[in-house]
Structures are given as C-alpha cells and as structure tokens.
Write a structure and sequence with these properties.
The chain has 1453 residues and is an alpha+beta fold. The strands form 11 sheets. The protein has a 10-stranded mixed beta sheet with strand order 16-41-40-39-17-33-38-37-34-42, sandwiched between helices. A 9-stranded antiparallel beta sheet has the order 19-18-32-31-30-29-28-27-26, sandwiched between helices. The longest helix has 39 residues, at 1077-1115.
Length: 1453
C-alpha cells in the first residue's frame, strides 16, 4: 500500500536529516580564507571557483590542478615515437622471438648468417608497422591542432569583457559566451540564456548522432534574469561530482555566500561537442575541460578484439615452436654424436686461443642455438603482416558493397573493428533487439481505448495497409484533415501540398566517409528534413469517426446539463488527449528557415476564453450562418476578444443528430479533419467566415521528440485538434478543438526511466487552477498504481471503475496480440497542501548529492500513486523490409536467433511470428515465474518432454573430407521445432537461483528464444552466459543506448544507425542501417572472409614448414653443422617477395562460391560455423603434407644428382626452384576464382624469382663471402636435367593433393563442392537445381515432409506463465501436437495452459472458439508415442476462469 505524502516526507526527513548551514564535511578546506569554516572532500567532489576578481587566487590555484581544455589524441610525440612504437610492437611474442634470434646470431660461436642479413626480416616488419602507425598518428595530430585552434569567447577579468580565445586556452572556472550554431568547447554549466524562459536548445549529433533537439535549463535561480549576465556579480562556489563518462547523469550544487545551496543536474550541463540551436546568446561556467569532459571520456576509438582464427593461430604457433624445438634437438644430438665418433678432431674443427676444443656436449648446445637461427623461418613472422593487409582489403570490399548501402539515408556499412572480419563467418548465436532493429522504429498511432471504450481507427488501418512510405524528405500527399490547414484554403478537398524543408543552420550531422552518392531528391527535389520522427507515415493520422464524434460532443458541452455518465465520458476524452499533448518533452518549432522555436502562440492569448464568451460566440455565429454573413464593420477588437483561435466554429447542420445529445459543432476551416468527404460545408457559413479563417492562420509546427513514441502520441492528439502550440520550461500551451487556447503552468516533469517505466508531468489547469498529474507508462506498471476501486464513493461508481479497468485490460491484450506497443494513460488531482509538501520533498532531493538518485526515485513513487485510469494507446512499429527473409535464412544457416526486448510479452510474440522467428508449426513454451522452486520444476518438466521428442542424429563418417555413403541412425522420426518465450522476472529467477545450466540445456533444444521485458543489464547477462558457458560465437545487434551493454558483451557487435541515435553504433564493431543487411554481411562476406583467411593461415604454415624441412633434411648430409645449401639472400627473399603476394591476393579476392549461391543456400554457412577449413585436424594434415612435399622436393633432386660433381649451391638452387614451383602451384590448386590479378601475381612471382636469380648470380661474386653463387642459375638453364627436375618434382609432390581433391566428388559431394558445381551452370539451370536441393532438404529420406515454413495452423503453443492469482505461480500450456509427429492430418490445435491451484491441475485453453475444445482430437487418433503427450489434455471437460489479463476456459487434466 502506497504511503501518503505526509508519511513519506516524515520518513525521508528522519532518514536524511537536512544539513544545517554550519554542518561541514570531513575533507580538505577551501583555498580561500573567507570559507575556512566550510570544508569539501576534494577527492570525492570537484570544487569550481569562478574566474573573477573575488575568487582570482582560488581559481588560479585550482587551474593548476584541473586539466586544461587542450586535447591530444595522438599516441606519440617526436621524442617518444621510436621507443613507444618498438615497445608496442614487441608485445607480440613473434617479434620478441625474432629479436632473440638476431641477438644470438651476433655471437661468433652461433653465427649462421651475416648479422645484417639476420636483422633484415625483423627490421622490415618493424619499419612497415612503424610507418603505418606514424602516418595515422600524424593525421590525429593535425586534427587535434585544428580542434585546439578553434575560437570561442571567454571572460577576461582584466578587461572586464569577453575576448576571443582558442579552445586550448579555456580553463575550468572560466565564463564562456556562446552564440547560436556555435559548438560548445567544454562541459559548461548553464547560467544565462537569452531566452526569456531560460531554455537553451542543443543538437547532440556530434556526440550521439541524434538530430532532434535537446532542452537545457538554466540553473534554478538564474532563469529569470532581466539583465545581461555579469560574471563579476557571480559569487557562488560550485561543487559537483568528479569527471566521469556517464552522459546521462550529473549532479552538484552551487553554494551561495550565505551557505545556502542550489542543486542542479544534467539538465543544466552543456556537453562539449554539442551545438547551440535556436538560442541567440548563452553564458556558462566551465566545469570539465579537455580530457575530463564527458565526450572525451567516452571517446575510446576503434575497438580491438582477438578473432577466433587468431586465437587458434596462436595455439598452432606454439605447436610450431615445439616442432622447432624437436628439430633443433635432433640437430644438436646428431652434431654431438657425429663429433663424438672422431678419435681426433678433424681438420675443419677450429680450436680456441688456448688450442683446446669444445666438448661434444657444449658443441651440441651451441648447435641447438645455431639450428634455431637456421630454422627460424618455421615461425611465420610474415603471417602477422599478411593478415593485417588481408583484413584491410576485406574491409575495403565490405565497405564498398553497394548492397549494404542505404541510399535513402546515404549510409554505407561502417567497419569499426578491423581485425574480426573472419568472425562474421562463424556466428552461431544472434542476439537481437526488437524495436528499431527488427522494426522500423517509426511509431504510428494505430488505435486507442478511452474510459473502457475501444476505438479501432479502421480508416487509419486501411491507410497504413495501402500506404507507400515515400521518402520523408520529399513532398507527400497531405490531407486537409491534418492540422494546421492549408493557408487560405477556401474549399475542403484533397490537395497536394509541398512543404518547405526544415533546415538547421550549419547542422552538425555525423559525417560518414565513403559512398559519395547524392541522395534522391524526391518528387520535388526537396532537401532532406532533419527533424527526427517526422516522416509522413508518422505524422498523418486518420481520426476514428466514433471518437471524432465524442471529441465534437465534448467541445459542445458548454453547459453542465448532461447526466453523470455523459459528463464522465466527456471529461475522460478531454483529459486523455490533454495527457497525450502535455505528458512529453516534445520541442515545438516552426517549419521556417532558420527554424524558430515556438514559445508563445501566434495571434493567441495565453489562456482560454471563458465558457460564457464561447457560448455567446457560438450563438452569434449560428444566427449569422443561418441568416446573413457578418457585417464588415465588425471591429477587429471583438474578434481579438472572441477569436483566440485558428478558425471559427459554428453550429451547423450535422449528419449525426441521433448521436449527439445537443446540436453538434464543426470547424469551417478544419472540418475536413472531422469528416473527409464533407466538401460543401462552407456553403452554410458565408464568405466572411472564410475571411475569419484566413485571418487566424498560423505557421505550421514541427515536433521534435526524444523518442518516436512521444512524437506519435503528439501527432495523434493533433489529428483530433488537441494541438501542442508551444512549450517552455514553465508553461505548455495547447489549442483545443473548440479553438480556445489553454496555457498550463508546468510545475514538475518526472522523466521516463527504465526502472519506473513511466513519465509524469505536474501541471496547473488554467481554468480550474487544479494541480493535475498526468502519467503515461507501461501497462504492467500503471495498472498496479491505480486507485483502489473500493475507495470510490458508491457501489455504482466502484462497479463502473472495475468494468473500465477490465475492458481496458482486454483491449491492451488485444493490442498486444496484434503486435502493437501499448501505453496506459492516467491522471491524478492533487490538493494544494499535498502538492506543497511533495514539492518541498522533491526540491530537497534535487539539491542532495549523496543518494540523490534514490531520493528522486522515492519522490516519484510517492507522487505516482492512486491514479485514475483514462485509457490506453496502441502504437504500431512496423517490421523492417527483409527481416522475415533474413531470420529464415539464419535459421537455415544453423544460427540460433534470440530476441531480447523490453516490450510486453504478447507484443513480442506477435512480432516474433510476423518476422518468422517463431513458425506456425513450432512448439512454443512460455515460462513466466518469480519462484525459484517453481522455475526449477518447470524447467525440469519442459526438458523432460523436449528430450522425449528429440531424435538422435545420424552418425556420418568422413575420411580426408570425403563423406562415406552410409550412416547410422536410431529412428527416422522428425524432431519437433521448439520455441521458448521467457520474461524478465523469470530471467532474474534463473540468474539468482543458479538455474543457468538447466536454462541453457533447454535452449540447446530450442530453435528460437524470445526474452521479453528485459532490462539492458539482463540483455548483457544473457549474452555473457551463452558465450561463456556454451563456448560459442555470438553476435549482438541493436540500435539504441539500451543495447550497448549487449553489443559489447558479444564476440561481434553490430549497431544499427536508426532512429535512436548513434550510441549503439559507437559501441559496435560494424554498423549497418537496416537489419536485412546482416543477411549478406554474414552469409556472403562472413563466409568469404573466414574461408579466405583460414586457407591463407593454413597455407602459411604449410609453406614455412615445407621450406624449413629442406634445410633440416640437408643436416643429415652435412654432419649437423648448421650449414645451408641455399644462398642466404635467396632464403630471405623467398618469404619476403617470391611467395608472399599470391596468398595475400587470394585472401582478399578469392571467392569459393558466388554471392548469389550463398544467399540462395544459407546452409553453406555451416562450413564456417563448424570451422571446417581451419581446425586442429586440418592444421596437422597440412603439416604432414608439408613434410611429404619437402621430402619429394629434397630427395628427387638429390637422387637425380647422385654421384655427380655439382656444387652445393647448384644443388641448393635446384631444390629452391622446385620448392618454389611446388608451393606456388599448391596455391594455384586452392584458388577457386581466377581473375586477371591472380594470373599476373602468380606468373609474376615465378618470373621475379628467375629474374632476381639471374641478376644476382651474374653480379654477385664475393658479396656473400666465403660462398660464391656466381653464374649458378645461368648454368642451370643450360642443362636439360634442371628442366626435367623442375617439372617432375612439383607434379610428384602435388599428385596426392590433386587425387584427394578429385576423389572428394566421387563418393558423396560435400555441400561446398556441390555449390561450386552449381556456379558453373547457367542462371536458369542453377535456380532449378537450387530449388531441387531445397526440396530435398525439407523432406525425410522416405519423402515425408518434416517441416513447412508457412503452414496454416500451429502444432503447439505451450505457455508456462505465472498469473498473480495462482498458488504455484505457474501455467503450462500445450496442445495435442499430432500433426507432423504421428500423422499428416491437418488437426486444429489450441493453446493450452496448465495451472496448479489448490493441488489440482487443469488444462486451460484460450477462448478462441469451441472447435479448439473438440473432444474428437483425442489421443486415440494416434497410436505412436507423441511428443509432449504428458502435457496435453485427455478429456474435454471445461470450466470458465478469468483473470485481469485474459478470459480462458479450462479443461481438467
């Protein structure tokens, strides 16, 4: 039971006693001696002294402590560039490893290569990366210099005036003066505004991408300044919180000389990077500067993640290190054994200075280190650089894909994380938001219920069904029924009206590089409007005829002569639309250029005219319209007194005389907004009335809202001529349908937050002077805050109140089943005494620093109680184009899709069916509970039933990638498709009750999961749970700030640049503009990126091991001396130039399957999910293949030259040549798509090798002393054996791979190979084969259909829910799921619910028709065991039950 205001205030004051003026904090004293008695905790709070004469000493001391306003985003300076760059690069173990090799090669005992040669690879890699980092850092330096040199006006104490300063010279405590359209240089507390109401408007596009204006309020006590702000008169000290990165929270207070405090919050803080709009002059004091501003603290730059392939690669590099250790150990042991066999040291052993020789053990140790230097290429240092280049190329092609470009918004895809492109091809779980991600986030008013009566708005529904959403920036069909009417309209007809686009001067729209395409100019070439949530489909609302009559009736109720019922209805209708108009934070502006914010109504008085004058006016207009027109001599002053409206209302003839208790009213200029087909109304009025309409015309309004829901409700109210005219910090002006204008005093605004799930405004009615609280919020919250009906005076009133709530709840359930977003509207009338106490309570909470959020929450909860229900609204958020196809494709690709939304369950389920997340034939379980025991038992029951219905999969056997033509399976019964629906309360129970493992086990059997009523924290917890426990690759996609934590928790984060700003985009790895783009991003680019990079990594390991083994085999013939038969320069250039470019090019351009085939066959994506290309098996197969090919490349030339007199380097050159050809031809076998670039690079690499060898051998005589490679290649070209060996060796080495590739298509073609074959067919044949493929996939081996994506009836919909009136807090629903499990007959199946009440179980079915309860659908119809049979009904006995959620009929189990 809610506490009264008195008791709440008393409890709050007792818990938080007010601090007296002399109360001090244990902290450091202030710097000034004037304030020695007052102390502050400088480690906890920030103390700001104003930069004026009085606080000059204090401000100078503080300025040395706080950060300046200059920024530096560079990582290096000229002095720190070299050491810091080397320090960062040596964080890679591979670089440290090669540095170690360089160091030990400098020792004479271990020297293998020339010291300069050993350093060359490492220096080349470090130099390339250093140049890249230096270039990027220099660009950042230039940008920083440009920002720091920007100009602003700051107060100068000596000159007593504002002077121009650079941004970097501004300090904390300075007074800054800002002009309209100026960017804010620091975080500034607003102290003065030229606006008479103390309101400053900001555009935060540079900060969060939102183009709608935000209001900022001057600190209380400074908003009503009649003169210009003088900094010298400012004598307050500012105490606020320490710098942090929370953009939505800020708290502090100003302490006046008398030690009284004035609290302020985020509403008074101007953030750095925002732009001042619609305000001529603002003055504020700098609170945070430079890197301490909230914008800079949120600027984290590109994210760095480690991809799955990179993690796997690091493990394999350790295996390579182990392999290197074994090879070096063999060389050391061999060297020691070889030398130990000599009785006397041979002549080539060189003694030291004392004439002694090394012992075999020490010689073996030295040889171990020498072998490490010799075989260093085994660790692929060039692989890291190659991967970086390949990922840059992949990102370039993704960014320039025209299919991922949104022409309407001029937005290409953004790749913000450059190192996880291959992870896009391995996603197993997708976690998606609903609103704005799956839907358009264009909220359209669809229907409403007022006072228990539902208004379906059928005309509006028809308009939406046939509506073609033109570009919101172009001219569109505008009906005269929408307000305001066309200027000078003399006839009521359907017209085409082109509106002038709204522009902001120097709008700071977030710039997206790339795709410099021009936007479509629309039908008339208008520029795009930058007003958020203002598309035509959102603004145009067709009124409901029945509700329109009630509005007209309410306008004509001028005398209190009606019955109680009529009065109550009329009051509810008016209050309902007043709540829609007042309870928001919408900014009103005009569609002029530049845009002007509306603060006072044009040609209108600030308050409504009296009822008597309105009645007299209507009587006069009635007589005038029936007899004669108004006289032209009527004074304009009479009109000014009588017509404070935009149009003149007359009592004219009505077609609905049987409906209205009195004669109905209509508006001459706006009557087409009441009745569309009325085209002859003005004939009854006379021409002078049209002149009146024309004289009262006013500019068109633009509404800028912070959320699309607010905009939709304001546009809906405007459709019924409840027009929001202006809004200030203290007043809201509303124009009523009768033309009168009411100006409400805005006393308090309690904004929406995710905890309360509602917002409220406290206003004073201008006519009755009542203090009214209007509240709107989620139905699950508002319904619990309503006044107890038993407190009503009278039984009839109580019954009526209960009936209204019941009917409203039924309508809410209906809206939710239709997929509409629901909001409840309520009000409350306060008396002066209660409001005064609560206002004091609120002000104390606002001025507090400790526990401010808790206190503000408590004050809101005390106010928002004992509400009176007015009605509810249903807002449609339409699905985005292509969402169902994308989700269906993900399902075929084996990706499990979860939807995590904050919407109510019925709405989310309806959207889930619409977007094919849940199919009609799916068995859907719904679990809603708050009890741990109940939740655990329900999970156990559901798991048991699901496991009964599962089928053990067929066991398939593969050998070297070849699938054998037989498999084993226990049964051929198809698995049922399982869907799971769960709410936020149950998630809390699962996390707190340690039921995560059972929940995850159930989700493994589920094809789709829908989590409703989720908080942002719950979203991230679910993603982290699945990612950490199941060890799967996850992707999270969202569009709003509430999705940021979820996006950051996933392996891959996708942000949608939609209607809710850019917070999700800034936290994401990739940013797209529509959900449908995710389909190609994953199925095509993800597959390509993974396939290319995985093959390249495997190829690098194969290439390096093959080449190193050539040197290793040679050690068996050179006494394990660490000698090499290949020239040093040839060895270095082998990896650096000759074999490096082809794999990089293939990693960027190769396409194993075309994009059309990948999109048509989503199941091909499973190749990346299962990591079939790069996994431990394929790695070791590549290592074994490299050993085989190295043996062939070494011993075939060895056998060919056996017993010949060729030199060592001649033999080495031949081995080097055949190994090069073998490795390049191996790459050629892996290329699936040959282009001109592939041919150029492949042939060019071979020609480059021979050209270099010829020039090097011809010119290098003693450049590599003591060896002499002179004229070796020239001699090789003159012998026939060289050509023979160069041909036969690569063929022999590659023959096994070629045979395996040929045999892969012999027994059973893998899906990848079959898709590659389809690409070779013509388009018509390929489409036909793909259709056949899909038809085979959707049938069992016997030809029985397993599933159909779009059947007529659902198999089952099992809901495990928790009504509040059930003892066990659980409901389990199911159906006799016979279709598709035991027979093929088309049974009609219902929705069943299992309740435990008084230890009795009953099966409940929704009241959807008697056919659902037919006892003919009994279990005897099927003889086979049915899945979920224990959850189904066995009798047809029924009973009727009801709850506040829905009416159900029950069948006893």
């Amino acid at each position: 039971m809610a506490l009264s205001v008195d008791s709440a205030l008393y409890r709050w004051m007792r818990r938080h006693p007010r601090e007296g003026p002399c109360q001090t904090l244990e902290s450091t004293p202030l710097l000034s001696s004037d304030y020695e008695r007052q102390k502050y905790d400088l480690n906890k709070w920030r103390v700001v002294f104003p930069s004026n004469e009085r606080f000059q000493k204090d401000s100078e001391k503080v300025s040395q402590v706080y950060s300046g306003n200059g920024i530096r985003t560079t990582k290096y300076t000229l002095l720190t560039f070299l050491p810091l760059s080397l320090f960062e690069q040596f964080h890679r173990l591979a670089n440290v490893y090669f540095l170690f090799l360089v160091v030990i090669n400098w020792f004479p005992q271990l020297e293998v290569f020339h010291r300069d040669i050993t350093m060359l690879p490492l220096v080349a890699v470090l130099l390339v990366i250093a140049v890249k980092d230096g270039t990027e850092d220099y660009k950042r330096h230039r940008f920083d210099k440009q920002i720091n040199s920007s100009k602003t006006k700051a107060y100068n104490k000596s000159k007593n005036a504002y002077i121009e300063k650079c941004w970097e010279d501004v300090q904390v405590g300075d007074f800054v003066q800002l002009q309209c359209n100026e960017i804010i240089p620091a975080d500034i507390l607003l102290l003065y505004c030229s606006d008479q109401n103390g309101i400053c408007h900001l555009e935060t596009a540079n900060l969060d991408g939102e183009t709608n204006l935000k209001q900022r309020q001057v600190v209380k006590g400074y908003s009503n300044q009649n003169t210009e702000f003088n900094p010298e008169f400012f004598q307050n000290i500012i105490v606020c919180e320490k710098p942090n990165n929370d953009l939505n929270k800020f708290k502090g207070y100003m302490e006046q000389p008398d030690l009284t405090r004035i609290g302020f919050n985020i509403e008074s803080l101007l953030l750095r990077g925002c732009t001042v709009r619609n305000t001529e002059v603002t003055v504020g004091i700098v609170i945070y500067a430079g890197h301490e501003t909230k914008a800079m603290l949120n600027n984290r730059g590109p994210r760095y993640k480690r991809s799955k392939i990179e993690q796997r690669m690091n493990v394999d590099i350790f295996f390579c290190v182990g392999l290197l250790f074994i090879m070096c150990l063999i060389g050391a042991i061999g060297h020691g054994v070889w030398n130990g066999n000599f009785v006397e040291p041979p002549l080539y052993f060189i003694p030291d200075g004392n004439g002694s020789y090394l012992s075999p053990a020490l010689a073996g140790f030295y040889m171990f280190l020498t072998m490490i230097i010799l075989l260093q290429v085994l660790i692929p240092i060039s692989l890291y650089v190659s991967i970086e280049l390949v990922k840059l190329g992949q990102v370039f092609f993704i960014h320039n894909d025209i299919d991922l470009y949104n022409e309407e918004q001029d937005l290409p895809i953004q790749c913000r994380a450059l190192n996880i492109t291959e992870d896009l091809g391995q996603i197993q779980y997708i976690f998606s938001d609903k609103t704005g991600t799956l839907t358009e986030n264009k909220m359209v008013f669809r229907r409403c219920t007022i006072n228990g009566k539902e208004f379906s708005h059928q005309e509006n529904a028809k308009r939406l069904e046939t509506y073609k959403d033109f570009d919101s920036d172009s001219d569109d069909w505008t009906k005269c029924l929408s307000l305001p009417p066309d200027r000078g309209a003399e006839t009521i007809t359907l017209t085409w009206r082109g509106t002038k686009p709204v522009r902001r001067c120097q709008s700071a729209r977030a710039h997206v590089q790339g795709h410099s395409r021009s936007r479509s100019l629309g039908n008339w070439g208008n520029s795009p409007s930058q007003v958020a949530f203002s598309s035509t489909i959102e603004k145009d609302v067709t009124p409901d005829n029945n509700l329109l009559k009630k509005v007209k009736n309410a306008s004509c109720q001028l005398e209190s002569l009606t019955s109680f019922t009529s009065t109550k209805t009329t009051s509810s209708v008016t209050d309902f639309f007043l709540a829609l108009t007042l309870c928001n934070t919408v900014v009103v502006s005009t569609a002029t250029e530049p845009r002007q914010r509306v603060t006072t109504p044009s040609l209108m008085k600030s308050s409504g005219i009296s009822l008597e004058k309105i009645h007299q006016l209507f009587q006069r207009l009635k007589l005038a319209s029936l007899s004669q027109s108004f006289s032209s001599t009527q004074s304009s002053s009479d009109f000014a007194e009588s017509f404070n409206t935009e149009s003149t209302r007359v009592c004219a003839d009505s077609e609905a005389k049987d409906y209205f208790p009195t004669q109905s009213c209509s508006t001459l200029a706006d009557c087409d907004s009441f009745r569309r087909d009325s085209v002859t109304e003005q004939e009854t009025s006379g021409p002078s009335l049209n002149e009146i309409c024309e004289a009262a015309d006013q500019p068109e309004f633009c509404y800028e809202a912070e959320s699309p829901d607010e905009a939709a409700l304001v546009h809906a109210a405007r459709a019924y001529q409840f027009t929001l005219v202006s809004r200030t910090a203290d007043q809201v002006t509303v124009k009523l349908p009768d033309g009168s204008v009411l100006t409400f005093d805005l006393l308090f605004t309690l904004g929406f937050d995710s905890n309360r799930k509602r917002m409220s405004v406290v206003v004073r009615h201008p006519l009755t002077s009542e203090i009214i609280v209007y509240t709107k919020g989620a139905d699950s919250v508002i319904m619990d805050l309503l006044e107890d009906p038993t407190r009503e005076s009278g039984v009839a009133v109580e019954k009526r109140t209960r009936a209204i709530r019941t009917q409203t709840q039924k309508h809410l359930d209906l809206y939710a089943r239709d997929g509409l977003r629901t909001l409840c509207i309520a009000k409350k009338v306060l008396n002066e005494n209660d409001f005064r106490k609560w206002a004091n309570f609120r002000r104390e909470a606002e001025s507090a620093i400790d526990n401010r959020d808790e206190l503000l929450m408590e004050t809101a909860q005390h106010l928002e109680t004992q509400l009176t229900l007015l009605g509810a609204t249903g807002i449609e958020d339409r699905l985005q184009e292509g969402v169902p196809d994308a989700i269906a494709a993900f399902r075929e690709a084996g990706i499990q899709t979860w939807v995590l939304t904050g919407d109510k369950q019925e709405t989310a389920v309806n959207i889930a069916y619409a977007c094919k997340l849940l199919a009609q034939r799916d068995t859907v379980f719904t679990i809603n509970t708050e009890s741990k025991e109940t939740c655990e038992s329900l999970l156990d029951i559901t798991l048991e039933e699901v496991k009964k219905a599962q089928v053990s999969p067929r066991t398939k056997y593969t050998v070297f990638g070849i699938t054998l033509p037989f498999s084993l399976s226990s049964t051929v019964t198809p698995n049922p498709a399982i869907g799971l629906v769960i709410d936020g309360r149950t998630l809390n129970t699962i996390f707190q009750g340690q039921l995560e493992h059972k929940f995850l086990e159930l989700t493994k059997y589920s094809r789709s999961i829908l989590c409703c009523r989720c908080t942002p924290l719950q979203k991230s917890m679910v993603v982290k749970l699945v990612r950490s426990q199941l060890k799967v690759m996850t992707l999270a996609i969202g569009d709003g700030a509430n999705d940021v934590s979820m996006i950051q928790a996933a392996n891959v984060g996708i942000g949608i640049s939609g209607q809710e700003g850019m917070q999700a985009v800034m936290a994401s790895d990739f940013a797209i503009s529509q959900f449908k783009h995710l389909k190609k991003l994953l199925l095509v680019h993800g597959h390509w990126c993974y396939s290319r990079l995985a093959k390249m990594v495997i190829y690098f390991f194969y290439k390096n091991v093959t080449y190193v083994n050539l040197l290793f085999w040679y050690q068996f013939f050179c006494a394990f001396s660490g000698a090499s038969m290949i020239d040093y320069w040839q060895m270095i250039f082998f990896n650096l130039f000759f074999t490096s470019v082809p794999p990089i090019l293939c990693g960027i351009l190769d396409k194993d399957i075309s994009s059309e085939t990948l999109l048509s066959l989503p199941e091909l994506y499973k190749n990346g999910q299962n990591s079939e290309i790069y996994k431990p098996l394929t790695f070791w197969v590549a290592i074994l293949e490299s050993f085989y090919q190295s043996l062939i490349c070494f011993f075939l030339p060895y056998l060919a030259y056996h017993d010949s007199d060729i030199g060592v380097f001649t033999f080495g050159t031949t081995v080097n040549t055949v190994s090069l050809l073998t490795i390049l031809f191996h790459q050629a076998l892996e290329i699936k798509t040959w282009t001109l670039f592939h041919w150029i690079v492949m042939i060019g690499s071979i020609l480059l090798y021979f050209l270099f060898s010829l020039i090097y051998n011809a010119t290098c005589v003693v450049c590599n002393h003591p060896t002499n490679p002179y004229w070796i290649m020239e001699k090789e070209f003159s012998t026939a054996s060289f050509y023979f060996i160069s041909i036969i060796t690569p063929v022999t080495a590659l023959l096994p791979r070629y045979l395996i590739m040929a045999l892969q298509g012999t027994f059973q073609v893998s899906p990848i190979l079959k898709a590659q074959q389809l690409d070779q067919l013509s388009k018509e044949q390929r489409d036909l084969e793909i259709q056949k493929w899909k038809s085979r996939e959707h049938h069992t081996p016997s030809g029985t259909a397993v599933q159909n994506s779009e059947p007529d009836q659902p198999i089952a919909n099992m809901g495990i829910s928790m009504p509040s009136n059930v003892g066990i807090d659980s409901m389990l629903s199911g159906s006799n799921g016979q279709q598709g499990f035991c027979s093929l007959e088309q049974d009609t199946l219902g929705v069943w619910m299992l309740n435990k009440e008084d230890n009795d179980y009953s099966i409940q079915e929704e009241a959807m028709g008697a056919s659902f309860l037919s006892s003919e659908n009994s279990s005897e119809q099927c003889t086979a065991a049915k899945p979920f049979s224990s959850l189904l009904a066995s009798s047809g006995e029924s009973s009727v039950r009801s709850s506040h959620r829905r009416t159900v009929s029950a069948v006893t189990l």
